[in-house]
Amino acid sequence: MSKDGVDSGRRRFLLWSTSAVGAVGAVGVAVPFVKSWFPSARAEAAGAPVQVNVGKMQPGQAIRAEWRGKPIFVLKRSAEALAKLKEIGGLLKDPESKHETTKQPSYISGINRSIRDDIFVVVGICTHLGCVPQQKKELSPEEGAGFFCPCHGSKFDMAGRVFSGVPASDNLEVPPYSFKDDNTVVIGVDQGAA
Fold first, then answer.
1. DSSP character for 12?
2. Could you tell me if 154 and 167 are in contact, meaning their C-beta atoms sit under 8 angstroms apart?
3. Domain extents for the chain?
């Protein structure tokens, strides 16, 4: 085959321009594909730590927040509610939160299940079937204040500990949290990691 009449300059131009258009097309397809591997801004925000101002809370007051798609209850417990926690141990399934299925950070211990006695942070999802319990000023005279799950009748005290004789088998989950300062709880960041 003879190369007579072949414009090599034009051939090079066509080869390079076709290659360039192909490369741009490949990048155009690859960029959205690679971006799909990363979480969306909404997904990142869902797992981000949440700050709750507890500075102006009154005893008995609760603030509801959301972290990782879960309802979080932040409560300011009164001195009476804290005293009641010591009295009702015999009515509970797991008063010391020792069951291996109890979910709480390692730095949470004791009957108050909190870093500070007056501020309690808990995931507001019943451990029976995942309903959202309601805060009650009094479950009964001997039980005191706590949480009641209207779906199946499970009851929890003001430390999220489950009462005996109800369908739920575990205490409410305590999420990782810490105090940024005296007035700010950071949900999603472990104590000592803040």
1. H
2. yes
3. 7-38, 44-187
